[in-house]
Write a structure and sequence with these properties.
The protein is mainly beta. It contains 2 helices and 21 strands.
Length: 344
């Protein structure tokens, strides 16, 4: 028999491509693109393009990490108030998400996402910004094509977070990821234009969100086709070599999503911000369930991948790599990864 939570989640299933559109009545919603991109000569870049809308405001986050040159470029762009036409709600119309920069420079922190050939799961995604530290102008221009099934977070794509809500969108958190996005396009850093390709990741989350607190997250895309999103309990603060209770959603090669318990251990090396907050650059994720036994090691590819906010908490979001072992096998499976730490 289904539990009350499972029954609610089953009723509130994600339907694609319809749920790629914005949702009327959702006070929180975002589309979050991250991943690893490579040039033809093997040069590696991490990137993030995030367009987010809250009840009374919106914001963008854009980032490029040049792994070879060990440089990070980033911009957070707050928008007060959230524009009414920032995203397409009507599923009969072409899908888009659009937020601009400040009035003084509409391209500094601007994001545009549009459907390709009428399919909202295939996306043209553009972003431009001026790096806050170096004043270098940066752009991303990507075409993304989804292949296969989505990753349904919690195994269902729906979780009850506010029992006092008056509608599904005020009661439930809806969350899925497109983890098979084949990317082509270009990255521009100053006067340099680099053509890139890769397999990238998009999260779409909307509805009721839990209260802001500390958390860590690791997204993993393995070369064997298995993808997973692992996160620690909200409110838990990581400490070096201390295992943390965590959970992961796993997307198997056959398209099935499952939700399992995990153990996550933060490890050296560390990065300490100018606000004296310690961020971990290595994580061990262990799964020991009836569905899967495995160990994953996730390593950041550049120490300082902080979105810096002088008025509020910083957030660590950056490109990483992963290797994994399954069961008793000595075979190592490699992959790309992403690390997020909200510890402010």
């Amino acid at each position: 028999m289904l539990t009350k939570q499972q029954d609610l989640a089953a009723i509130c299933a994600i339907t694609l491509p319809k749920d790629q559109y914005a949702h009327e009545g959702a006070q929180n919603e975002w589309w979050w693109h991250v991943g690893t991109l490579k040039s033809s000569d093997g040069r590696k870049f991490g990137f993030e393009i995030n367009a987010a809308g809250k009840s009374s405001y919106a914001f963008t986050q854009i980032e490029i990490t040049d792994v070879q040159n060990q440089c990070n470029y980033q911009k957070v762009n707050p928008i007060i108030a959230r524009p009414s036409n920032w995203a397409q709600y009507n599923i009969a119309e072409p899908w888009y998400v659009q937020l601009s920069g400040p009035a003084a420079n509409l391209t500094n922190g601007a994001i545009l996402m549009q459907s390709i050939d009428g399919n909202p799961l295939n996306m043209g995604v553009k972003a431009s910004f001026i790096d806050v530290a170096s004043n270098v102008s940066c752009q991303l221009n990507l075409s993304l094509y989804q292949q296969g099934s989505p990753l349904l977070v919690w195994g269902t794509g729906c979780k009850l977070v506010n029992s006092g809500g008056t509608s599904p969108l005020t009661k439930n958190n809806y969350y899925y990821s497109l983890t098979h996005l084949r990317a082509t396009g270009s990255i521009t850093i100053g006067d340099e234009v680099v053509h890139v390709t890769g397999l990238t990741w998009m999260d779409h989350e909307y509805g009721a969100f839990p209260d802001n607190s500390t958390w860590t997250l690791q997204d993993i895309q393995l070369s064997n086709g298995m993808h997973l999103s692992n996160f620690t309990n909200v409110g838990d603060v990581p400490k070096e070599n201390i295992p943390m209770i965590s959970n992961a959603t796993i997307l198997f090669q056959n398209g099935k999503s499952i939700y399992v318990k995990t153990v996550t251990t933060p490890m050296e090396p560390i990065f300490t911000s100018n606000k004296e907050i310690t961020y971990y650059l290595k994580f061990k994720v262990e799964i020991n369930s009836s569905e899967l036994t495995a160990t994953f090691i996730v390593n950041s590819l550049y120490p300082d991948q902080l979105f810096k906010d002088e008025a509020g908490p910083d957030v660590y979001e950056g490109v990483a790599e992963c290797h994994a072992r399954f069961g008793s096998s000595d075979e190592i499976v490699f992959g790309t990864a992403w690390i997020e730490q909200n510890l402010g």
